[in-house]
Amino acid sequence: MNVLSVASEVYPLIKTGGLADVVGALPAALLPHGVKTRTLVPGYPAVLQKLKKKKKVGSFENLFGNPATVLAAEIDGLDLLVLDLPELYARDGGPYVDATGRDYVDNFRRFAALSLAAAEIAGGDVVSGWKPDIVHAHDWQTALTPVYMHFGPAAATPTVMTIHNIAFQGQFGALVFPELALPAEAFSMQFVEYYGDVGFLKGGLQTADAITTVSPSYAQEILTPEFGMGLEGLLKSRVADLSGIVNGIDADIWDPQTDPHIAQHFSATSLKQRAANRRALEERFGLEKGNGPIFCVVSRLTWQKGMDLVAEIADELVAMGGKLVVLGSGDAALEGALLAAASRHRGHIGMVTGYNEPLSHLMQAGSDAILIPSRFEPCGLTQLYGLRYGCVPVVARTGGLADTIIDANEAGLAAKVATGFQFTPVNADGLRLAIRRVLRAYSEPKVWSKIQTQGMKSDVSWATSAERYVSLYSGLLGKG
Ligand SMILES: Nc1ncnc2c1ncn2[C@@H]1O[C@H](COP(=O)(O)OP(=O)(O)O[C@H]2O[C@H](CO)[C@@H](O)[C@H](O)[C@H]2O)[C@@H](O)[C@H]1O
Protein backbone atom coordinates (compact mmCIF):
# COMPACT_ATOMS: atom_id res chain seq x y z
CA MET A 1 0.00 0.00 0.00
CA ASN A 2 1.32 3.46 -0.92
CA VAL A 3 0.48 6.43 1.28
CA LEU A 4 1.09 10.10 0.57
CA SER A 5 1.48 11.88 3.89
CA VAL A 6 1.39 15.66 3.62
CA ALA A 7 2.50 18.00 6.39
CA SER A 8 3.99 21.41 7.07
CA GLU A 9 6.83 20.01 9.22
CA VAL A 10 8.73 16.78 9.65
CA TYR A 11 11.49 15.72 12.04
CA PRO A 12 14.49 15.78 11.52
CA LEU A 13 14.22 18.43 8.81
CA ILE A 14 12.02 21.07 10.35
CA LYS A 15 10.23 21.05 13.70
CA THR A 16 8.27 23.56 15.74
CA GLY A 17 6.37 20.99 17.80
CA GLY A 18 4.96 17.51 18.18
CA LEU A 19 3.47 17.41 14.68
CA ALA A 20 6.97 17.05 13.21
CA ASP A 21 7.82 14.16 15.54
CA VAL A 22 4.70 12.24 14.57
CA VAL A 23 5.00 12.86 10.83
CA GLY A 24 8.68 11.86 11.03
CA ALA A 25 8.20 8.67 13.04
CA LEU A 26 5.00 7.11 11.72
CA PRO A 27 6.34 5.98 8.29
CA ALA A 28 8.96 3.66 9.82
CA ALA A 29 6.32 2.14 12.08
CA LEU A 30 4.01 1.49 9.12
CA LEU A 31 6.67 -0.06 6.90
CA PRO A 32 6.72 -3.54 8.52
CA HIS A 33 3.01 -3.73 7.65
CA GLY A 34 3.73 -3.23 3.97
CA VAL A 35 2.67 0.43 4.03
CA LYS A 36 5.12 2.61 2.12
CA THR A 37 4.79 6.29 2.98
CA ARG A 38 6.05 9.24 0.96
CA THR A 39 5.95 12.50 2.89
CA LEU A 40 5.36 15.79 1.07
CA VAL A 41 6.68 18.92 2.82
CA PRO A 42 7.42 22.49 1.70
CA GLY A 43 10.93 23.31 0.53
CA TYR A 44 11.83 25.76 3.31
CA PRO A 45 15.52 26.75 3.31
CA ALA A 46 16.10 24.59 6.42
CA VAL A 47 14.72 21.59 4.55
CA LEU A 48 16.59 22.11 1.28
CA GLN A 49 19.89 22.68 3.09
CA LYS A 50 19.66 19.36 4.93
CA LEU A 51 19.04 17.25 1.83
CA LYS A 52 22.28 15.82 0.52
CA LYS A 53 20.99 14.12 -2.59
CA LYS A 54 17.82 15.28 -4.23
CA LYS A 55 16.27 14.42 -7.56
CA LYS A 56 13.67 16.29 -9.54
CA VAL A 57 10.70 13.97 -10.01
CA GLY A 58 7.97 16.36 -11.08
CA SER A 59 7.01 19.94 -11.69
CA PHE A 60 4.16 22.43 -11.90
CA GLU A 61 4.22 25.12 -14.53
CA ASN A 62 1.95 27.33 -12.54
CA LEU A 63 1.05 26.75 -8.91
CA PHE A 64 -0.75 29.91 -7.76
CA GLY A 65 1.18 31.97 -10.29
CA ASN A 66 4.59 30.35 -9.75
CA PRO A 67 6.50 27.48 -11.23
CA ALA A 68 7.37 24.74 -8.73
CA THR A 69 9.48 21.62 -8.63
CA VAL A 70 8.90 18.37 -6.77
CA LEU A 71 12.15 16.91 -5.43
CA ALA A 72 12.58 13.38 -4.11
CA ALA A 73 15.05 12.73 -1.32
CA GLU A 74 15.73 10.34 1.51
CA ILE A 75 16.80 11.17 5.03
CA ASP A 76 17.01 8.78 7.98
CA GLY A 77 14.87 6.28 6.08
CA LEU A 78 12.16 8.85 5.31
CA ASP A 79 11.02 8.88 1.70
CA LEU A 80 10.44 12.58 1.04
CA LEU A 81 8.83 14.68 -1.63
CA VAL A 82 9.76 18.33 -1.27
CA LEU A 83 7.78 21.11 -2.91
CA ASP A 84 10.40 23.60 -4.06
CA LEU A 85 8.60 26.90 -4.62
CA PRO A 86 10.96 29.72 -3.58
CA GLU A 87 8.39 32.52 -3.94
CA LEU A 88 6.37 30.94 -1.12
CA TYR A 89 8.87 29.05 1.01
CA ALA A 90 12.31 30.67 0.69
CA ARG A 91 11.92 32.98 3.69
CA ASP A 92 14.14 34.04 6.59
CA GLY A 93 11.79 33.21 9.46
CA GLY A 94 10.21 29.93 10.59
CA PRO A 95 7.70 27.79 8.73
CA TYR A 96 4.75 29.97 9.75
CA VAL A 97 6.10 33.27 11.07
CA ASP A 98 8.64 35.85 9.94
CA ALA A 99 11.81 36.75 11.80
CA THR A 100 9.82 39.11 14.07
CA GLY A 101 7.34 36.37 15.00
CA ARG A 102 4.42 37.58 12.86
CA ASP A 103 2.40 35.18 10.69
CA TYR A 104 3.28 35.48 7.00
CA VAL A 105 0.39 37.38 5.40
CA ASP A 106 0.24 34.87 2.55
CA ASN A 107 0.05 31.74 4.74
CA PHE A 108 -3.28 30.88 3.11
CA ARG A 109 -1.53 30.78 -0.28
CA ARG A 110 1.60 29.01 1.02
CA PHE A 111 -0.43 26.14 2.46
CA ALA A 112 -3.12 26.07 -0.21
CA ALA A 113 -0.23 25.53 -2.65
CA LEU A 114 1.08 22.63 -0.58
CA SER A 115 -2.40 21.10 -0.44
CA LEU A 116 -3.03 21.58 -4.16
CA ALA A 117 0.35 20.04 -4.98
CA ALA A 118 -0.55 17.02 -2.81
CA ALA A 119 -3.91 16.63 -4.56
CA GLU A 120 -2.27 16.80 -8.00
CA ILE A 121 0.40 14.27 -6.97
CA ALA A 122 -2.42 12.01 -5.74
CA GLY A 123 -3.93 12.29 -9.21
CA GLY A 124 -0.85 10.47 -10.53
CA ASP A 125 0.26 12.86 -13.27
CA VAL A 126 2.97 14.76 -11.38
CA VAL A 127 5.43 12.15 -10.13
CA SER A 128 5.66 9.77 -13.03
CA GLY A 129 5.13 6.13 -12.18
CA TRP A 130 3.85 6.86 -8.66
CA LYS A 131 0.34 7.27 -7.31
CA PRO A 132 -0.75 6.82 -3.70
CA ASP A 133 -3.56 4.49 -2.62
CA ILE A 134 -4.33 6.71 0.39
CA VAL A 135 -3.65 10.38 1.17
CA HIS A 136 -3.08 11.35 4.80
CA ALA A 137 -3.19 15.09 5.63
CA HIS A 138 -2.07 16.57 8.96
CA ASP A 139 -3.51 19.72 10.58
CA TRP A 140 -4.92 22.86 8.97
CA GLN A 141 -1.92 23.58 6.76
CA THR A 142 -2.70 20.58 4.59
CA ALA A 143 -6.43 20.36 5.19
CA LEU A 144 -7.39 21.66 1.76
CA THR A 145 -5.82 18.52 0.26
CA PRO A 146 -9.01 16.42 0.46
CA VAL A 147 -11.02 19.43 -0.76
CA TYR A 148 -8.86 19.83 -3.87
CA MET A 149 -8.98 16.06 -4.37
CA HIS A 150 -12.76 16.07 -4.17
CA PHE A 151 -12.95 18.58 -7.03
CA GLY A 152 -9.98 17.18 -8.95
CA PRO A 153 -8.47 14.13 -10.55
CA ALA A 154 -8.03 12.05 -7.38
CA ALA A 155 -11.63 12.23 -6.16
CA ALA A 156 -11.77 8.46 -5.70
CA THR A 157 -8.59 8.14 -3.63
CA PRO A 158 -9.43 7.73 0.09
CA THR A 159 -8.27 10.47 2.46
CA VAL A 160 -7.49 10.69 6.16
CA MET A 161 -7.40 14.01 8.02
CA THR A 162 -5.56 14.03 11.34
CA ILE A 163 -6.14 16.74 13.93
CA HIS A 164 -3.03 17.32 16.04
CA ASN A 165 -4.40 20.48 17.59
CA ILE A 166 -7.86 21.86 16.89
CA ALA A 167 -6.89 25.25 18.32
CA PHE A 168 -5.16 26.01 15.03
CA GLN A 169 -7.76 25.98 12.27
CA GLY A 170 -6.44 28.07 9.38
CA GLN A 171 -9.31 30.55 9.31
CA PHE A 172 -9.00 33.38 6.78
CA GLY A 173 -11.30 36.13 5.52
CA ALA A 174 -13.71 35.29 2.68
CA LEU A 175 -11.61 37.55 0.43
CA VAL A 176 -9.01 34.80 0.02
CA PHE A 177 -11.54 32.38 -1.48
CA PRO A 178 -11.23 33.55 -5.12
CA GLU A 179 -7.47 32.98 -4.86
CA LEU A 180 -7.80 29.30 -3.88
CA ALA A 181 -8.61 27.97 -7.35
CA LEU A 182 -11.66 26.13 -6.05
CA PRO A 183 -15.05 26.08 -7.79
CA ALA A 184 -17.63 28.56 -6.46
CA GLU A 185 -19.66 25.77 -4.87
CA ALA A 186 -16.75 25.09 -2.49
CA PHE A 187 -17.63 28.29 -0.62
CA SER A 188 -20.52 26.60 1.14
CA MET A 189 -21.34 24.82 4.38
CA GLN A 190 -20.42 21.42 2.91
CA PHE A 191 -16.90 22.60 2.12
CA VAL A 192 -14.73 25.51 3.25
CA GLU A 193 -17.20 28.22 4.28
CA TYR A 194 -16.81 28.75 8.05
CA TYR A 195 -18.88 31.40 9.82
CA GLY A 196 -18.62 33.55 6.69
CA ASP A 197 -14.85 33.01 6.45
CA VAL A 198 -12.72 30.36 4.79
CA GLY A 199 -11.80 27.52 7.15
CA PHE A 200 -9.02 25.24 5.95
CA LEU A 201 -9.41 22.65 8.73
CA LYS A 202 -13.17 22.90 8.45
CA GLY A 203 -12.98 22.05 4.74
CA GLY A 204 -10.70 19.08 5.41
CA LEU A 205 -12.94 17.72 8.15
CA GLN A 206 -15.99 17.98 5.89
CA THR A 207 -14.34 16.27 2.97
CA ALA A 208 -11.90 13.62 4.24
CA ASP A 209 -13.13 10.03 4.29
CA ALA A 210 -11.81 9.46 7.80
CA ILE A 211 -10.91 11.84 10.61
CA THR A 212 -8.46 10.96 13.32
CA THR A 213 -7.00 12.74 16.26
CA VAL A 214 -4.10 11.72 18.45
CA SER A 215 -5.79 10.11 21.47
CA PRO A 216 -9.13 8.46 22.25
CA SER A 217 -9.94 10.93 25.04
CA TYR A 218 -9.30 13.97 22.82
CA ALA A 219 -11.52 12.38 20.15
CA GLN A 220 -14.35 12.47 22.71
CA GLU A 221 -13.46 15.89 24.09
CA ILE A 222 -13.58 17.68 20.72
CA LEU A 223 -17.24 16.72 20.41
CA THR A 224 -17.96 19.21 23.22
CA PRO A 225 -18.11 23.03 23.01
CA GLU A 226 -15.38 23.30 25.67
CA PHE A 227 -12.77 21.55 23.50
CA GLY A 228 -14.24 21.58 19.97
CA MET A 229 -13.46 25.26 19.44
CA GLY A 230 -16.39 25.80 17.09
CA LEU A 231 -15.98 22.54 15.18
CA GLU A 232 -17.85 20.31 17.65
CA GLY A 233 -21.09 20.38 15.62
CA LEU A 234 -19.36 19.32 12.43
CA LEU A 235 -17.42 16.62 14.27
CA LYS A 236 -20.60 15.27 15.86
CA SER A 237 -22.13 14.95 12.41
CA ARG A 238 -19.09 12.89 11.40
CA VAL A 239 -18.66 10.90 14.59
CA ALA A 240 -18.93 7.58 12.72
CA ASP A 241 -15.76 8.48 10.81
CA LEU A 242 -13.84 9.91 13.79
CA SER A 243 -11.32 7.95 15.84
CA GLY A 244 -8.51 8.64 18.29
CA ILE A 245 -5.16 6.90 17.80
CA VAL A 246 -2.60 7.67 20.46
CA ASN A 247 0.88 8.82 19.36
CA GLY A 248 3.97 6.75 19.92
CA ILE A 249 7.56 7.95 20.04
CA ASP A 250 10.64 7.20 17.98
CA ALA A 251 12.28 4.74 20.34
CA ASP A 252 15.66 5.04 18.58
CA ILE A 253 15.91 8.80 18.97
CA TRP A 254 14.55 8.70 22.52
CA ASP A 255 16.55 5.87 24.07
CA PRO A 256 18.40 6.51 27.35
CA GLN A 257 20.75 3.62 26.57
CA THR A 258 22.11 5.21 23.39
CA ASP A 259 21.10 8.92 23.49
CA PRO A 260 24.10 11.03 22.34
CA HIS A 261 22.76 14.15 24.08
CA ILE A 262 22.93 12.91 27.67
CA ALA A 263 25.85 12.70 30.10
CA GLN A 264 25.45 9.04 31.08
CA HIS A 265 23.43 6.22 29.56
CA PHE A 266 21.07 4.24 31.79
CA SER A 267 18.19 1.79 31.77
CA ALA A 268 15.43 0.63 34.12
CA THR A 269 17.95 -1.68 35.81
CA SER A 270 20.64 0.96 36.23
CA LEU A 271 18.70 3.97 37.47
CA LYS A 272 21.60 5.04 39.70
CA GLN A 273 23.41 6.09 36.52
CA ARG A 274 20.88 8.90 36.14
CA ALA A 275 22.87 10.78 38.81
CA ALA A 276 25.48 11.95 36.27
CA ASN A 277 22.70 13.48 34.18
CA ARG A 278 21.34 15.22 37.25
CA ARG A 279 24.77 16.73 37.89
CA ALA A 280 25.05 17.88 34.28
CA LEU A 281 21.62 19.47 34.55
CA GLU A 282 22.50 21.23 37.84
CA GLU A 283 25.54 22.67 36.16
CA ARG A 284 23.73 23.72 32.99
CA PHE A 285 20.98 25.53 34.95
CA GLY A 286 23.17 26.81 37.80
CA LEU A 287 21.31 24.82 40.45
CA GLU A 288 22.67 24.27 43.94
CA LYS A 289 23.52 20.66 44.66
CA GLY A 290 21.03 18.92 46.92
CA ASN A 291 18.69 16.01 47.35
CA GLY A 292 15.20 17.27 46.60
CA PRO A 293 13.45 16.36 43.34
CA ILE A 294 14.15 18.38 40.21
CA PHE A 295 11.01 19.13 38.22
CA CYS A 296 11.37 20.09 34.57
CA VAL A 297 9.25 21.79 31.94
CA VAL A 298 9.96 21.41 28.19
CA SER A 299 7.24 23.23 26.39
CA ARG A 300 5.88 25.95 24.21
CA LEU A 301 5.09 28.69 26.72
CA THR A 302 1.37 29.09 26.13
CA TRP A 303 -1.95 29.13 27.94
CA GLN A 304 -2.78 25.73 26.37
CA LYS A 305 0.20 24.24 28.14
CA GLY A 306 -0.78 25.79 31.52
CA MET A 307 2.49 27.66 31.83
CA ASP A 308 0.85 30.43 33.85
CA LEU A 309 0.12 27.77 36.49
CA VAL A 310 3.80 26.81 36.67
CA ALA A 311 4.72 30.48 37.20
CA GLU A 312 2.02 30.75 39.86
CA ILE A 313 3.19 27.81 41.97
CA ALA A 314 6.95 28.26 41.43
CA ASP A 315 7.57 29.91 44.84
CA GLU A 316 5.74 27.14 46.68
CA LEU A 317 7.50 24.42 44.71
CA VAL A 318 10.80 25.80 46.01
CA ALA A 319 9.41 26.29 49.53
CA MET A 320 8.35 22.63 49.54
CA GLY A 321 11.93 21.57 48.76
CA GLY A 322 11.75 21.09 45.00
CA LYS A 323 13.83 22.57 42.21
CA LEU A 324 12.65 23.56 38.74
CA VAL A 325 14.28 23.78 35.31
CA VAL A 326 12.40 25.27 32.39
CA LEU A 327 13.14 25.13 28.66
CA GLY A 328 10.72 26.92 26.40
CA SER A 329 9.72 29.91 24.40
CA GLY A 330 6.49 31.51 23.36
CA ASP A 331 4.22 34.02 25.03
CA ALA A 332 6.37 36.97 26.21
CA ALA A 333 4.39 37.52 29.43
CA LEU A 334 4.72 33.86 30.44
CA GLU A 335 8.39 33.87 29.55
CA GLY A 336 8.81 37.00 31.74
CA ALA A 337 6.94 35.46 34.68
CA LEU A 338 9.10 32.32 34.60
CA LEU A 339 12.33 34.30 34.21
CA ALA A 340 11.27 36.41 37.21
CA ALA A 341 10.71 33.24 39.25
CA ALA A 342 14.19 32.04 38.22
CA SER A 343 15.80 35.28 39.35
CA ARG A 344 13.88 35.20 42.68
CA HIS A 345 15.16 31.67 43.32
CA ARG A 346 18.67 31.51 41.92
CA GLY A 347 20.14 28.09 42.54
CA HIS A 348 16.65 26.56 42.80
CA ILE A 349 14.96 27.55 39.54
CA GLY A 350 16.78 27.74 36.21
CA MET A 351 15.45 28.74 32.85
CA VAL A 352 16.71 28.54 29.27
CA THR A 353 14.58 30.33 26.72
CA GLY A 354 14.44 29.18 23.11
CA TYR A 355 14.28 25.91 21.32
CA ASN A 356 17.00 23.37 22.09
CA GLU A 357 16.52 19.75 21.07
CA PRO A 358 19.69 18.30 22.69
CA LEU A 359 18.99 20.07 25.99
CA SER A 360 15.45 18.67 25.99
CA HIS A 361 16.98 15.17 26.06
CA LEU A 362 19.29 15.98 28.98
CA MET A 363 16.35 17.42 30.92
CA GLN A 364 14.39 14.18 30.59
CA ALA A 365 17.47 12.21 31.64
CA GLY A 366 18.49 14.36 34.61
CA SER A 367 15.19 15.59 36.12
CA ASP A 368 13.06 13.52 38.46
CA ALA A 369 9.67 14.63 37.19
CA ILE A 370 8.21 16.53 34.23
CA LEU A 371 5.34 18.97 34.77
CA ILE A 372 2.63 19.04 32.07
CA PRO A 373 -0.32 21.07 33.37
CA SER A 374 -2.02 21.47 29.96
CA ARG A 375 -5.57 22.84 29.81
CA PHE A 376 -6.07 20.66 26.76
CA GLU A 377 -3.66 18.18 25.19
CA PRO A 378 -4.55 16.20 22.07
CA CYS A 379 -1.86 13.63 22.93
CA GLY A 380 1.36 15.13 24.24
CA LEU A 381 4.77 13.63 23.60
CA THR A 382 6.90 14.94 26.44
CA GLN A 383 5.14 12.69 28.97
CA LEU A 384 6.00 9.70 26.73
CA TYR A 385 9.68 10.78 26.60
CA GLY A 386 9.48 11.18 30.39
CA LEU A 387 8.19 7.61 30.79
CA ARG A 388 11.06 6.25 28.74
CA TYR A 389 13.68 8.25 30.68
CA GLY A 390 12.47 7.57 34.23
CA CYS A 391 11.39 11.22 34.50
CA VAL A 392 8.03 10.80 36.18
CA PRO A 393 5.19 12.65 34.39
CA VAL A 394 2.95 14.93 36.46
CA VAL A 395 0.05 15.65 34.14
CA ALA A 396 -3.31 17.35 33.90
CA ARG A 397 -6.09 14.77 33.53
CA THR A 398 -7.03 15.71 29.97
CA GLY A 399 -6.79 14.33 26.43
CA GLY A 400 -3.83 12.12 25.68
CA LEU A 401 -2.23 12.85 29.05
CA ALA A 402 -5.13 11.06 30.74
CA ASP A 403 -4.81 8.17 28.28
CA THR A 404 -1.08 7.58 28.64
CA ILE A 405 -0.27 8.06 32.34
CA ILE A 406 -1.54 5.83 35.14
CA ASP A 407 -1.97 7.71 38.41
CA ALA A 408 0.11 6.69 41.41
CA ASN A 409 -2.88 6.42 43.75
CA GLU A 410 -3.07 3.59 46.25
CA ALA A 411 -4.78 1.22 43.82
CA GLY A 412 -2.32 2.04 41.04
CA LEU A 413 0.64 1.48 43.34
CA ALA A 414 -0.78 -1.73 44.81
CA ALA A 415 -1.44 -3.13 41.34
CA LYS A 416 2.11 -2.12 40.29
CA VAL A 417 0.84 -0.20 37.27
CA ALA A 418 1.29 3.44 38.34
CA THR A 419 3.52 5.47 36.03
CA GLY A 420 2.98 9.07 37.10
CA PHE A 421 0.64 11.60 38.67
CA GLN A 422 -2.58 12.98 37.24
CA PHE A 423 -4.40 15.99 38.61
CA THR A 424 -7.67 17.78 38.17
CA PRO A 425 -9.03 20.45 38.26
CA VAL A 426 -6.40 22.01 36.04
CA ASN A 427 -5.63 25.08 38.11
CA ALA A 428 -2.94 26.23 40.54
CA ASP A 429 -4.53 24.36 43.47
CA GLY A 430 -4.65 21.13 41.46
CA LEU A 431 -1.01 21.49 40.47
CA ARG A 432 0.05 22.36 44.03
CA LEU A 433 -1.62 19.23 45.39
CA ALA A 434 0.01 17.12 42.70
CA ILE A 435 3.44 18.47 43.61
CA ARG A 436 2.79 17.69 47.26
CA ARG A 437 1.93 14.09 46.26
CA VAL A 438 5.13 13.88 44.20
CA LEU A 439 7.25 15.06 47.14
CA ARG A 440 5.65 12.48 49.42
CA ALA A 441 6.33 9.65 46.94
CA TYR A 442 9.86 10.93 46.29
CA SER A 443 10.65 10.76 49.99
CA GLU A 444 10.11 7.00 49.82
CA PRO A 445 12.84 5.78 47.47
CA LYS A 446 11.28 2.34 46.98
CA VAL A 447 7.93 3.80 45.95
CA TRP A 448 9.63 6.33 43.68
CA SER A 449 11.84 3.87 41.86
CA LYS A 450 8.83 1.60 41.35
CA ILE A 451 6.94 4.42 39.62
CA GLN A 452 10.01 5.15 37.52
CA THR A 453 10.61 1.56 36.45
CA GLN A 454 6.93 0.91 35.75
CA GLY A 455 6.96 3.97 33.50
CA MET A 456 10.10 2.80 31.76
CA LYS A 457 8.48 -0.55 31.06
CA SER A 458 5.30 0.90 29.58
CA ASP A 459 4.88 0.60 25.84
CA VAL A 460 5.34 4.03 24.28
CA SER A 461 6.34 2.67 20.90
CA TRP A 462 4.38 3.11 17.71
CA ALA A 463 3.66 -0.63 17.43
CA THR A 464 0.00 -0.73 18.51
CA SER A 465 -0.93 2.63 17.00
CA ALA A 466 0.72 1.78 13.68
CA GLU A 467 -1.55 -1.28 13.52
CA ARG A 468 -4.55 0.96 14.09
CA TYR A 469 -3.54 3.27 11.23
CA VAL A 470 -3.01 0.24 8.99
CA SER A 471 -6.48 -1.10 9.74
CA LEU A 472 -7.97 2.36 9.17
CA TYR A 473 -6.24 2.61 5.78
CA SER A 474 -7.24 -0.96 4.86
CA GLY A 475 -10.84 -0.29 5.83
CA LEU A 476 -10.94 2.77 3.58
CA LEU A 477 -9.49 0.83 0.67
CA GLY A 478 -11.95 -1.99 1.30
CA LYS A 479 -14.82 0.48 1.11
CA GLY A 480 -13.55 1.26 -2.37
N1 LIG B 1 11.88 24.76 23.85
C1 LIG B 1 11.95 23.53 23.35
N2 LIG B 1 13.14 23.00 23.01
C2 LIG B 1 13.21 21.74 22.50
N3 LIG B 1 12.15 20.95 22.27
C3 LIG B 1 10.94 21.45 22.58
C4 LIG B 1 10.77 22.74 23.15
N4 LIG B 1 9.45 22.95 23.34
C5 LIG B 1 8.82 21.84 22.94
N5 LIG B 1 9.72 20.93 22.47
C6 LIG B 1 9.46 19.62 21.87
O1 LIG B 1 8.36 19.79 20.95
C7 LIG B 1 7.50 18.66 21.04
C8 LIG B 1 6.16 19.12 21.61
O2 LIG B 1 5.24 18.12 21.37
P1 LIG B 1 3.85 18.01 22.14
O3 LIG B 1 3.18 16.80 21.62
O4 LIG B 1 4.09 18.03 23.59
O5 LIG B 1 3.06 19.36 21.82
P2 LIG B 1 2.60 20.25 20.55
O6 LIG B 1 1.59 21.14 21.16
O7 LIG B 1 3.74 20.84 19.86
O8 LIG B 1 1.93 19.21 19.54
C9 LIG B 1 0.59 18.98 19.07
O9 LIG B 1 0.72 17.81 18.24
C10 LIG B 1 1.26 16.69 18.92
C11 LIG B 1 1.45 15.57 17.91
O10 LIG B 1 0.28 14.94 17.59
C12 LIG B 1 0.37 16.28 20.09
O11 LIG B 1 1.03 15.26 20.83
C13 LIG B 1 0.09 17.48 20.99
O12 LIG B 1 -0.85 17.12 22.00
C14 LIG B 1 -0.41 18.65 20.17
O13 LIG B 1 -0.67 19.80 20.98
C15 LIG B 1 8.21 17.65 21.91
O14 LIG B 1 9.03 16.86 21.10
C16 LIG B 1 9.06 18.54 22.84
O15 LIG B 1 10.18 17.86 23.37
Automatic annotation (TrEMBL):
The reaction(s) this protein catalyses: [(1->4)-alpha-D-glucosyl](n) + ADP-alpha-D-glucose = [(1->4)-alpha-D-glucosyl](n+1) + ADP + H(+)
Domain spans labelled Glycosyl transferase family: 286-450
Domain (Starch synthase catalytic) ranges: 2-236
Pathway given in the UniProt record: Glycan biosynthesis; glycogen biosynthesis
Listed EC numbers: 2.4.1.21
GO MF assignments: alpha-1,4-glucan glucosyltransferase (ADP-glucose donor) activity
Keyword annotations from UniProtKB, A to Z: Glycogen biosynthesis, Glycosyltransferase, Transferase
Domain of life: Bacteria
Annotated residues for binding of ADP-alpha-D-glucose: 15
InterPro entries from the UniProt entry: Glyco_trans_1, GS/SS, Starch_synth_cat_dom
HAMAP family per UniProt: Glycogen_synth
Family named by the database record: Belongs to the glycosyltransferase 1 family. Bacterial/plant glycogen synthase subfamily.
Function noted in UniProt: Synthesizes alpha-1,4-glucan chains using ADP-glucose.
PANTHER family documented for this protein: ALPHA AMYLASE DOMAIN-CONTAINING PROTEIN, GRANULE-BOUND STARCH SYNTHASE 1, CHLOROPLASTIC/AMYLOPLASTIC
The name this protein goes by in its record: Glycogen synthase
Species of the source: Ensifer adhaerens (Sinorhizobium morelense)
